[in-house]
Amino acid sequence: MTVVLALVVGGGVASAGLPTPPVPALPAPPLSDDVFYVPPSPLPDGKPGDVIRTRDVPLSSYPDARVQQIMYLSTDIHDKLVPVTGMLLTPLLQKPGNDNPLVVHTPGTRGLDDRCAPSKQANPLQANPGSPEYAMPEYQQLLARGISVVVTDYEGQGTPGDPSYLVGQSEGRNGLDALRAAEHIKGSGVSPDSPVGISGYSQGGQAAAWAAELQPTYAPEQHLKAVLAGGTPTDMLLEVNHLNGNPTAGAGFALASLVGLNHGKPELDLDSKLTPEGKQILDQVKQSCVVELFAGFGTTTVGQVTNPDVLSDPAWQNAYRASQLGTKKPGAPAYLYHGTADNIVPIAQAEMLYHDWCTQGASVQYETIPATEHISANILGSQRGVQWLADRVEGAQTIAGCHEVDLS
């Protein structure tokens, strides 16, 4: 699904004998998407979180914020520097100074094609209807309180190449490095002294939870105050088997996870295992945004695109298990929420993470939202959770221990 904006400029024929009028000098056009999102080659020397480039988005969906698209350095799961894009939303109501609060939003599934990247949806004239910005209410809720929001596109989402879709460690690193990048941007009003938070839902819940577990060792300098994660796929092997061939959960998401896992771990050599039909299907997956992924692949299974079925391959099983959450204590208090009737990420996944984090000694609030599936749980649950997150990056304390949220 695309929107095409055509600008047609017409020209007449000059009358015979009349001098040709001079062509007025025009300002240089802004850096095009094709140029902005193509990383320099070679990459500049630097460290994770260093900023490669930024540009303002003068026409945006956020009238109460300055919007900047950004490109910064992060690392993949092999510790190699990679370019990642995203966007920074700086509230116009921001207080003076350079230590204002900052939240990184790790987005839910937007698709695999570069046109689906969250930062590319900031300009309403360029936004892709197949990749709706369903986190906008959360951003606006934070911006209204003077809290900046930085959003990562993840490795390979805006930039050339495949993304590491649903590879938890990669997503978590990209989110933490987005915090670092925002803190390095001149005039952002945030700095390494800023209190920070992490937020995400669905794929973004996985990324947020991974960022929380990685923060104490990967980004210990960050003043992490709170983590908000909803609809979180905790065990990727269980999750991909649930999605596999499931038309009501989105079989396309399982197929997309093959692409993401293979990008993160190229030794899996997905291409050698694709059937001829499978190659055509995965080419379509790579060109799809979230709406197309959910609705466009029916009951297609991993076994129809790979031979033998890679979900039965121990190497692939172990690779999925490497994204297992709950093995480490998060770096800050957490708030988990999940719909009781979630058909995309079953609630058992949230209960698993809640139990595991509590066993690790974390302080966790857990909200179950009755009779809600995946999308409605995001809408209904995020407002309360975002308020909890905002309170903590603004200095509120958390009661130690694990507690289920009382909705009465």
TrEMBL record:
<dbReference type="Pfam" id="PF03583">
    <property type="entry name" value="LIP"/>
</dbReference>
<dbReference type="InterPro" id="IPR029058">
    <property type="entry name" value="AB_hydrolase_fold"/>
</dbReference>
<protein>
    <submittedName>
        <fullName>Lipase family protein</fullName>
    </submittedName>
</protein>
<dbReference type="InterPro" id="IPR005152">
    <property type="entry name" value="Lipase_secreted"/>
</dbReference>
